[in-house]
Amino acid sequence: MILQFGLLFAFLACGELIVALTNIPIPSSIIGMLLLTTALKFRIINLKHIERVADFLVHNLGFFFVPAGVGLMCCLDLIKGELLPIAIATIVSTFIIIATTGWVHQYVRNITSRHQSHPINNHHDGTADQ
Amino acid sequence: MELLTNKYFLIALTFCIFVAAQILQKRTGIKLLNPILLSIVVLICLLMGLGIEYETYNEGGKYIDFWLKPAVVALGVPLYRQLESIKKQMLPLLIAEIAGCVIGIISVVLIAELLGASREVILSIAPKAVTTPIAMEISTATGGIPSLTAAVVVCTGIFGAMAGFSMARISRLRSQIATGLSIGTASHAVGTSAAMERSQRYGAYSSLGLTLNGLFTALLAPFILSVLGYI
Prior knowledge:
Chain A is an all-alpha fold. Chain A has helices at residues 2-22, 28-41, 51-59, 66-70, 76-81, 83-115.
């Protein structure tokens, strides 16, 4: 377990280092995540060296957001005045994003698989229509 | 009163409330009793009732917050597990992400504007679909209020986790890939945790959605906001 945590934080530290050196406006955690995937892909580290800790954190991701959510109490006054616009814009836009992303993905994927003239490719990954 | 403001007590309290909320949701099966949402509401009520400042709570809370970054790094594992299937469809994934990112920012800004939100609030909620660290950085850079951004981001995530699958069904998304991807795109890591509960496959595409949307939003949000005339 110590090794697993060590590796995870090493990737995060690399992310921090890259951000500090290049000043790119991308969070260190996202860079660390891409580095981790890359390292697994090129067999620099083995899945079993990080899997237990990673799965634990991923499965409990929501819990770590609780304190940030409690921060809501700091801006209650600001929100009270504009609750309706904030709530409606957030809810409707979330729906729009889900529909748009999903539709565009399904559409482009159908076109590209038709282009390769493998109609069966449509569901080559096993996600058949429900 | 000393005990109430002790950081270890506040950390323990957060854990206990979350576990109780999890048990409550499991027993009742009511979707609305999302453990994250419920814990936040209960904690806010408790703190306000006891007259404890957020800064005091955060003395303990920041140690939980701390794990957000390593947890996002850990999403690299489910991503790796689906790498082969992701490589096969790079183009549809990228185009869908750019569409989701751009339309997501424009829609939230326009709807808020239409309903009379102030400029400051609009700038704060523009990056609401992406994970907190990215959203807060964008908000700071464009002149929003970072704490409001964090709160709206968490609420968006909870909403996506609760209603994302229903929305995907209403939108007639048929493949697991499109569904997972769109939930991650719209509701970042909190939505991803709900997707992960369904299956590794949903979860992996959801992590991909949150990553790509995080990248695109970081790059495009300032540009889109300036085109729309806000900055």
